[in-house]
Amino acid sequence: MPFGDLLTELKELPMLARYSLTLYCKRNGTVATARRFESCATVIEDALCREVSRHFFEEDMDVFFEEGTPSVCRYGGGFFGFLIPFTLSGEEFCLVGDGVREESIDLWQLASLARNGGDAFSLLPYVESLCTASYEEVEEVAEQVRRRIELYRLPAASHQEQAAVARSQEPVGDEALHAVSQTVERLDKVGTVTACLAVCCETIVTVFQATRIAVALPDADGKSFSVTGMWGLPEELGTLSVETLQLFVAPDRAKKTVLWDGKLRAALPEVRATVCTAFPLKAHGERLGFMAIFDTEITPNAALLISMLAGAMAGKLSSIDRDAARCKENALSERLMSLTDTLLQIDSKDLLYESILKIASDLIEATQGSIMLIDKDGVAMQIVFTLGMTLNIARCLQLKVGKGIAGMVAKTGQPLLVNDVEKDSRVAMANRLRFKSKSLICIPLKLKDKVIGVLNLSDKKNLRPFTHADLQLLTSFANLASLMIERTEVREESERFEQLSVTDPLTGLYNRRFLKSRLEEELNRSMRQGLNLTVIFIDLDFFKSYNDLCGHLAGDEALKLTADIIKESLREMDIVARYGGEEFCAVLPGTSKGEAMIVAERIRSEIENKRFRGESDIPLRRLTASLGVASFPEDGRTFNDLVHASDIALYEAKARGRNRIVAARTSTQQGEPKHDVLEPRREATQSNLAKTLDFNAYLEASLQSKG
């Protein structure tokens, strides 16, 4: 047989599809003892691998041949190759196969392969594109090729004569059973679908002299079966529906040689045959397809053995599928756990919505999308975040549950995968201009059985339709997204209630209860670290009169403006609270009384210069404030002592004419205020009462005159 024909026939084996093949023939050298192998034929799939393999194998080709058994070697940056020595028609040969690599890449060894002064990284994309295999898989391929070569080691004759001799030597009875049993044992060692099919087909070809074999296996969606030529046929033979599959595996046809009639030809037009024998592939009650042998006489005994082999192959395929599914589930679980950690770090709802939409679009390579949430009434939906469209415009859209595609998903709670919006009877609508493709996915966001929103994605990057696998992946992520949305909303609601419990609803300042807690914390810290701390009490002058005369709305506005003035006059570390009515309290950690007096004056002057609505109608014709200042440790060491001292100072400011600041005066005894400071407070109280009575009389007379 010509060398090229030998390689061509070997290259047709499915297991060698990704390998480069080179045949070496041993020639006598000029020196009697010098014998070396020379390349006599080659079929190259990958030039770089072939070059590396040549340097590795050619130097010691004699040694490999003398060993007399197939050799599998790892060399270069992680490449695999095999060498098979054999003798044919009195000549000695070595067949070298290369072109695959192991899963990991050895950068240090790869660096030596870089050309023109480059580095290993320049070769990385190239090497990564190569097919990967394990040492065991390459070893299995080498053994099967060796067996195949054995068929050629027959006396020189015509191809037809060789085939006839091969058929005459076909193992029968115990020999065939033994060959099938060995194949079943070998199946336990393979780990891929390709290797499983290759092992079985090789046995059928060598033991039962089959010339053409095809296998039908289920597609990812489980609704169709792809037919692949494994031996003597084109690789892609078409797709069969579940119904069409019955033409091959129906009880009256399965495991029987039948004519290749019109229905079968219509199902697989790429196959030209006379007869066909199909063996169903079933495992654990699940239909996995079939294996078909064309134009080969299958005896009853052979059919029984092939059926046994098909059953073992189906079991192995099912096991491989289960292992792959488990690996996929584990990988998905790990990925979801990683995404969970990422989403748990996000504090705000807007950032969460943005992250969810970005992750979802990355998972299925979508370029447009949106998140819609259902309102509390369960009637309307609002777009809370978008991808590929303007969010402000999207938020203005009027959306209702039950209306449109997303509304239908929100109502039914069922995910929707649409390949073509114009042809799908469930939607049947014209495609919108902003969408580049007609395929979309809508996933309900659900908490248990309650739908809280919808996740919409469209326009895959490659503009192809979304797949069932995309739908499954997105559904898994949508469950996580729903939990994260609920968690964020619950947390923000809890924070809102907590904020309401410690803040004044009118001014937004802290309330009196929170002030006591924080002031006690700051006092403890000041004691431990030996720091000053000052308290300022601020009270608006004649506020009751202002409130009565100008109304409660104006009074509320004045309180809010005063709160803003106080906050703007303080540092971020300072604490300000509404103590009650028109009275405010500011706590200045690490601040002495002298420093606090400067801050107090800034607050007083800002309030005095602020124009409040209707203030010209009150006695002083403007709204002002009186302030009392007390400091730790000289004026007190507890919450009550400091509040008491600053309160006394405040009333002294009132007594002295208002719109002023008074600092607490201390005695030498335990830092408490002098008792004579209390007298101005009592006098001020009496004076205030008299002035209030006079003002009430003035107000009543004024109202009567206006009436």
From TrEMBL:
Reactions catalysed: 2 GTP = 3',3'-c-di-GMP + 2 diphosphate
InterPro entries membership: Diguanylate_Cyclase (IPR050469), GAF (IPR003018), GAF-like_dom_sf (IPR029016), GGDEF_dom (IPR000160), Nucleotide_cyclase (IPR029787), Rev_trsase/Diguanyl_cyclase (IPR043128)
Entry EC no(s): 2.7.7.65
Domain of life: Bacteria
One Pfam short name: GGDEF
Enzyme class name: transferase
Domain GGDEF: 531-666
Protein name in UniProt: diguanylate cyclase
Lineage, uppermost ranks: Bacteria, Pseudomonadati, Thermodesulfobacteriota, Desulfuromonadia, Geobacterales
